[in-house]
Amino acid sequence: VYGDMELIAAVMYEKTPNQYIDVNKLFDYAKTYYGVEQKSDIYTLKNKTITPWSEPSITRAVEKGWANNATNYNDTIYTEDLVAMLKKVGASYNGITMQEVYDLVGLKKGDLITRSSFAEIMTFAAKKWQLTLAITTTKPLPSDVTHLSDDTKAAISYMIDRDLMLPSNFLFNPNRILTFAEAISTIDRLPL
After folding, report:
1. How many CB atoms lie within 10 A of CB 168?
2. Pairing mode of beta strands 42-47, 34-39
3. What is the phi/psi pair of residue 76, to 5°?
4. What's the whole-number mean pLDDT along residues 33-60?
C-alpha cells in the first residue's frame, strides 16, 4: 500500500521496441520519479521530486488529504489541479470554483498558473474564507511587478507582506509558471 493506493506490479519490462509500451512508460516514470528508502528492515517508496524546502509542507498536505504522493512536484500546476486542491483544503470554507478563478484571472481548465495569477487566487481565497493573516512586515514591491494592474500588485503585496509568497533576489517573477511544490508550500502557510 502506498498512500491510499494498493499497488500490484507485474514485471514485464521489454527492450524490444513497441512491446508493452504502456508498461514500459510506467516503469520509466517510476524509475525517474521514485526510489526505495530503507530504514532497518522497512522499505518505503520515496518520491524523488520532493525537495528539502518543500518536504514538510508536502508531507502535511498528503497527511491531511489535499495532495497525494503520486505527483511530480516539480511539474507545473494546471488550473483544475489547483481548484481541486483548494476545494479539499477549503471544504469547510466553501472551496473555490473554476468559475471564480475564471472570473478573477481569466484562467480556465487546461491553463497553467503564473505566480501573479496564483497570488490573486490565493488572496481571493484568504478573503473569501475570512482567514486572519497577520502582516509580518510591510515590504516594498519587487521592481518586476510595477507594470502590472493595481489589483495584481495589491494581491502580490498581500502575499509578500504575510510571508505567503516571497521574492527571490528582489524579484517576484510574476510570469513564471507555478509548480505543485510551490503551490502546496504556499497553501500550507495558510492558518487553516
Report:
1. 9
2. antiparallel
3. -75, 150
4. 84
